[in-house]
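Dear U.,

For the methods section draft, I wanted the exact inputs and outputs in one place so we can describe them consistently. I've listed the two proteins in the order they'll appear in the manuscript figures. Please don't edit the token lines directly; just add comments below if something needs changing.

First protein:
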Amino acid sequence: MSKSTKYVAKVADARGHIAYTPEEDVVWADLYAAQEENVQRYMAQDYLDGLARLDVPKTSVPSCAAISERLLDLTGWRVQPVPALIGFKTFFSMLADRVFPAASFIRSREDFDYIEEPDIFHEIFGHTPLLSDPRFAAFSQAIGKAGVKAGAKDYSWLIRLYWFSIEFGLRRQNGQIKALGSGLASSPTELVYAVESDIPDRDPFDVLTILRTPYRIDMHQMGYFVLNSPEDLFEAADRDLLADVRQAQALGLLPNKFPEKVTAAE
């Protein structure tokens, strides 16, 4: 999770409030407007219920402190602004403590449709609706607790379960495939692609397969995993996830479905 970024973190004041500029509020408003219709059409009801519970502002960047107040009442979680990118160890530790690390900057117009790294729109609009649901919040905490016990060599394996569920998961709802993950909710282009495109595979949710599946952050996924029911995800929280990681490591990664990266020399 650690790589360079062109964005600079915004620092909260003593009250936990960040002062965003009018221009940044407009970017938020435009992102919300661009996503509002599509999330109602393509996102799972679990996400939509959470978005309604939190009453996320539509026209200005919300305060992490204000969102935290609502989450604390609902699930005992809070949102803490952090630099754009943090390491796996810090990430897992915060989840274990029911603290969601939120990158504090908001994307530029250049990255409006797709941003490789998380920004405040992704964090609040994408993640916090599911964190308002005790069941999804408990799963995120379980990932964190497993990560705290894991070694550094395990991080990149364990994070795939989070990636293909909380970030880019799909689920069946009334016979239709709906998006569940935060990365889909906050992406104007990948949300529609994940549900409607004929390009990506959509495989049944399976923990061991997920732990062995490569992903990339710089393009839309070539495959997603579909929950028949959110209960399948909640049951995964009760597994010995580190034992699953060991088994996945012994079996090795599955074939990479992505096209080869083209370098400048090519």
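Second protein (the one for the lower panel):
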Amino acid sequence: MTDCKLFIAGEWVDGTGTFPVKDKYTGTVLATAAKASREQVRRAVAVANDVFRKTPLDPYRRYEILAKAADIVKARSKELMDIISAESGFTLADGQMEVTRSIQTLLNSAEEAKRIHGDIVPIDAAPGQANRFGFTVRVPLGVVCAITPFNAPLNTVLHKVAPALAAGNTVVLKPASYTPITAAKVCEIFAESGLPSGYLNMVMGGGGDVGMWLLEDPDIRFYTFTGSTAVGRVIQAKVGLRRTALELGNISATIVCEDADLAWAVPRCMNAGFRKAGQVCTSVQRLYVQDGILKKFVDQLADATSKAKVGDPKKADTLVGPLIDLKEAERAETWVGEAVNGGAKALTGNRREGAVFHPTILTNVKQEMRVMCDEVFAPVISILPYGTLDEAIERVNATPYGLAAGIFTSNLKTALTAAKRIECGTVHINETSSSRVDLMPYGGMKDSGFGREGPKYSIREMTEEKMITVSLP
């Protein structure tokens, strides 16, 4: 067991209390994490604000620091994978993907640090402005508060921290209490990469106290948050005119058309439904499969799922490990049990062993069932038949959310019609809802939030456009 301390002004600091961080599969305590006091939260923000104003970093230095951080992550891949597997319960394959993607997030952020620019504004084209020139520059905002989830304890942290630093901001990070060890490693890595003290600070604790203290601090200029829609509403209401980027909940759907290549679609749907034990906001929760291929698709998906290895995430061939907490596995078991009692049929899974819930495929589901109308955040896929594309699109759109969706088809007109009409921030053609490349813009519509991640797009969110004019008397 180790200590996981707060990181303020380049120093590791004890909190005023502690909480345990457990191995999500074995339940053993991995570390004792420090809980920040109100005064420590205030100090972290004040340090970040003071450093921002007194110690600016030029763009090339930001590039060097971020590129060096990417090298360190690559060199420490095994250590990071082991920590992620233990404190999140993710399989080795999921942990490896998390580390690999994080390197790209850092490299993309490093490159974008050198590309921040404004525009030439043709002021001289306006009447009476012949001897006047204009241009814009993008300037950093100041202190960025990053509030991050457990389900991408390295890459989502870096999707918030790295672009903020690339833009010239300072950061106060509050990681999920389930997974603070990985976040502490991020602080270590940036310190080793040459980031000046105070540019990145980390406080830990619950959303009801530490989170609220952060929202109340007037020196924070921007909040970037990934989590539930309910918490997103609280953040937006609390911070007022200050800016936010909110990546919130979803009930993700993917459409499989009769002309889809099933050899391509089936393994992608299975992986997208069950990777990270279904604890991804774009996990395939609803699969709409056209009538003509329904039986063939269901048989293939159920057969592949029934052969998947489930359990110990540290075994190389495990597909599905534990959920983040026993209570979440029990919730998933309850929701599936309600669906089955209501007439749904479980083709696979529907079995819990401790915090592990076996990957479950449901058919004969109804819209009012919780596995359909709430975000399940567990390895559960519901398959529904459809007849026409119009019907499928209407059903995909019939939720308050709009983060991402996918469609499998060989018909270009079908693909582009769906892409145009589906109400989501991203529509993937011949990929599932859960296909994300880290350099692309990523974010939602409707109750799935607003703002865009992806280093280039996050930097745009985290900078201010300033207009400058020059007159020649």
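Candidate sentences for the figure legend, describing the second protein: The chain has a mean pLDDT of 97. The chain is about 40% helix and 25% strand.

Thanks,
Y.
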